[in-house]
Amino acid sequence: MASDIAVGVDFGGTKVLASVVDIKTGKILGSAKKRTDQNDNPKELGERLFGTIDEALKSAGLSKKQQITGIGVGIAGQVDSENGVLLGAPNLSQATVNLPLAEMLKKRYDVPATLLNDVQIAAIGESAFGAGKDMDNFLCVFVGTGIGGAFVQNGDLVRGASGSAGEIGHLVIDANGRLCGCGGRGHLEAYASRTAMTLAIIGELKRGRSSILTKLAPDLKDDAPGGTALRSGILAKAIDEKDDLCIDAVRDAAYYLGLGLASAINLLNPPRIILGGGVIESVSMLFDLASKHARQEALATPGKAVEIVRAELGDNSGVVGAAITGARAT
To answer: Is there a contact between 218 and 200 (Cβ–Cβ < 8 Å)?
Structure first.
């Protein structure tokens, strides 16, 4: 039975989620979640990761590390998957540069460990048990603190020369435009992520624009890292209340997200795009408008051919995919 059970970790810009997964069925046996902190140094980041995994194991009723076959981690950043090294994560601490996460996990738990980009592992999860399970080719795009992507071709994850293929969030959609968290300018992530929407909303509030957010999120401020000042659920509630400011912010983000998707459609000609992440899950308006703009801005033939759907596994896409990669590790 141990060979069927692995730990998957989804380490994002605002949270780290760890789950014990039966990789034969995709069933979650136990989970734990912690908030991330952009001020973490490498040691603190490691302890946060270990603590979350330990709690997930306890939640699943597992006390011995030998009861799992491996650990997989997906993290919001660029990784050297071959060596299990986090090269850098724009939405996490700069101290994460060249961090040997896989080796840290191997030493701690005495099992094989792997490291991939967070949307790459989400694509693996969706391919196995979600919206990609019947597809050999698809593009996976997740919108949250940032925007990440992964491309599956002929059933395999396309990694690229350095392992970073699929980084749709860093497509340039506005030359010399807004500053992105990675240091570049005009990237999609700076216009359509939750962080981008949050900063736009806060800017309008400072200009005196009225919004229900003064009641729903009275502590809203722009010094909270990674867009954590405004949660996706609060944004969705404000839209349900017909808040003009939030509706405008989502409309703008959806337009730019549509531009990024259109560029990907023209380049890759995928039969299916799977959209996921916290904002997509919570805010239907973003999914609907981005899909519409993507088809309008793409070339006519690939635009008509592509199917745009929501991720089916929700928050569990990443942990399921990570567990699968962890179980495959040697």
So the answer is: no
Evaluate whether 85 touches 56 at the Cβ level (below 8 Å): no
| DSSP notation for 213-239 | HHHH-TT--TTSGGGTTS-HHHHHHHH
Q: Which are the contacts of 300, defined by CB distance < 8 A and separation ≥ 6?
A: none
Give the residue, 83 or 266, on which the prediction is more confident.
266
Question: If phi over 0 gives left and psi between -120 and 50 gives alpha, with beta otherwise, what is residue 158?
Answer: beta
pTM for this predicted structure: 0.90
**Count of alpha carbons within 13 angstroms of residue 290, beta-carbon side:** 33
- Tell me: domain 2-125+316-328, CATH 3.30.420.40, correct? yes
3-class DSSP assignment, residue 212: coil
What is the C-alpha to C-alpha distance for residues 234 and 29, in angstroms, rounded to an integer?
29
Confirm if 219 and 253 have CB atoms less than 8 A apart. no
Under CATH, to which class is 133-310 assigned?
Answer: alpha beta
| Residue 306, pLDDT above cutoff 70 | yes
Mean pLDDT of the chain: 90
Question: Beta strand 138-143 with 85-88: parallel, antiparallel or unpaired?
Answer: unpaired
Q: How far is CA 135 from CA 26, 47, 153, 156, 273, in A?
A: 17, 38, 9, 11, 11
The reply to whether domains 2-125+316-328 and 133-310 share a CATH topology is yes
